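>> Question from a student workshop board

For tomorrow's exercise we were told to take the sequence and the ligand below, predict the bound structure, and bring the output to class. My setup keeps failing. Could a helper post the expected result so I can at least see what it should look like? The ligand is zinc ion.
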Amino acid sequence: MTQILEIAQRHQPILSQIARPVGDIKEDSVQTLIDSLIFTAEQANGVGIAAPQVYQSQRLFIVASRPNLRYPQAPLMEPIAMINPRILAHSTEMVKDWEGCLSVADVRGLVPRYQAIAVEYYDRWGQLQKQEFTDFVARIFQHELDHLNGLLFVDRVESPDDLYTEAAYQAIHSLAD
Ligand code: ZN
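>> Workshop helper replied:
Here is what the output should look like for this input. Compare the format with yours to find the bug.
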């Protein structure tokens, strides 16, 4: 049954562990987990969510870019489940931009990520997909892949000065607008 799942918060051990590869993608438990992850991300205004964030050690995440309260400029796409994902190649160029995380409440950070990546993953029907992503969607992919490897965006910032409270972030953005 599709349900809203509890999201693990920073310092929970599951968030710093290497997740296990998904075995049988077509298994009911995996399909239900995918539906619940999509639903949970949507309810939380997230643009992505990874299985370890809901206490499941599985190499599986959702990329669900869409404009929402937290990311008004995000491109609109159908949520995609990406299973046993890998980065095959990436740009040399890195870009620093804002990130937040459903597992790190009230913190925003400027995080360097590859501007473009070529990836492969299995979709929820078990088909191997190869795709290229740039900019915001490439950023989501790299953020979610980090979750499968036990890393959070706060581990990726170049300096503590690049971490902001949600309130400070909102203040900067209302000034910029
Ligand atoms: Zn996250």
